[in-house]
Amino acid sequence: MVNGDGTEIRVGIGARLKEERERLGYSQPAFAALGGASKGSQLAWEKGSAMPNAEFLHIAASVGVDVLYVVTGRRNMSSLAAEEEAVIAGYRMLDARGRTGVLALISGMQPPVATPGRTGMVFHGQVGEVKNIEGDYQQNEPVTINVGGKKKRTK
């Protein structure tokens, strides 16, 4: 529900403008100065007692403010960083093989999934022949480990 005088709308816009300013790391005076406004104007906007004009919002958008979010409360899902735009533009210029390679590269960069269980090894069988090892080690063939064999006697 909105008041007849638009107070609720102004307060919401002010709160979101402050949120965007803080997200981008600007102080109130520095942010206001971007568009030639005063710190007092910035304070009034953030309190909801006044609203920034379209010219200020246009300038704010050029430094990364999501103006759609400030005005409506909905994030602009299509806004991308310059690096992201470059990646997408490059991806679109690739042929099918190149796109497949990029997708494989990206999927290979995912952090490894931690495997639950032991981190040590458990040996089954006689000491001299290991047939099964449990843990983070994979061996497909039996391994023989000689431990403490007979010493050669010297005369």
Automatic annotation (TrEMBL):
<dbReference type="InterPro" id="IPR010982">
    <property type="entry name" value="Lambda_DNA-bd_dom_sf"/>
</dbReference>
<protein>
    <submittedName>
        <fullName>TRANSCRIPTIONAL REGULATOR, lambda-like DNA-BINDING REPRESSOR</fullName>
    </submittedName>
</protein>
<dbReference type="GO" id="GO:0003677">
    <property type="term" value="F:DNA binding"/>
</dbReference>
<dbReference type="InterPro" id="IPR001387">
    <property type="entry name" value="Cro/C1-type_HTH"/>
</dbReference>
